[in-house]
TrEMBL record:
A Pfam entry, by short name: TetR_N
Protein name per the record: HTH tetR-type domain-containing protein
Keyword Transcription regulation: yes
Species annotation: Glycomyces algeriensis
GO molecular function ontology, one term from the record: transcription cis-regulatory region binding
DNA-binding stretch(es), residue numbering of this chain: 42-61
């Protein structure tokens, strides 16, 4: 006889948690893949790509903003892991330029992701989410200033803001069709070289 409970509720709590985590992983995997591929992705498209219903998706991420933040967190976990493997030894000026070139593929991947979430999160939240990576750049700039490779007459915070803004400006120019993905890292490096060098 039916007891009024759902099949989901009758499953052990550990299994329900495992099922929920699998759904979350499917949502984030599908969302990151779609959000990174093109602008204008809908939540319904994410649910379909994840193979779940919209009700299930909203059960885990009650708003588009919550989904956007979770996708950015997932993307930045991968980006931060990649930066941990970056070799930052050697002259600071050369190292910064090499790192920007080597890591541009991650910035390029996140270009469409940023376009998809820009209306869902605040600029302040987005900037703060970049802090772990910007801290690595800050350490590199500081070392370059100590070595005489970088100018010291500008505030460090401004030099970081300039890099952050130029990276996103390059991404916007690619989206607008005024810059190619091949041109962007070299133009970015040249722009920062003229700004940072004494």
């Amino acid at each position: 006889m039916a007891d009024g409970t759902t099949a989901s509720a009758r499953r052990p709590s550990g299994q329900r948690r495992a099922d929920a985590q699998r759904n979350i992983d499917k949502i984030l995997d599908a969302g990151l893949r779609l959000y990174s591929s093109r602008p204008g992705v809908s939540v319904a498209e994410v649910a379909e790509a994840a193979g779940i219903g919209r009700v299930t998706l909203y059960g885990h991420f009650p708003s588009r903003t919550e989904l956007a933040k979770a996708l950015m967190d997932r993307a930045f976990e991968e980006t931060e892991a990649a930066w941990r493997d970056v070799d930052t030894t050697g002259p600071a000026g050369d190292t910064l330029e090499r790192v920007l070139r080597e890591q541009w593929h991650l910035m390029e991947r996140n270009r469409n992701l940023r376009d998809n979430i820009i209306g869902d999160v605040s600029p302040q939240w987005l900037r703060a989410r970049h802090d772990p990576i910007l801290k690595r750049i800050e350490d590199l700039i500081t070392r370059g200033q100590d070595d005489g490779a970088f100018r010291t007459d500008l505030p460090l915070s401004w030099m970081l803001t300039a890099l952050y803004s130029l990276v996103h400006a390059a991404a916007d120019e690619i989206t607008a069709g005024r810059l190619t993905t091949e041109q962007a890292p070299e133009i970015l490096v040249a722009s920062l070289r003229s700004l940072y060098r004494p």
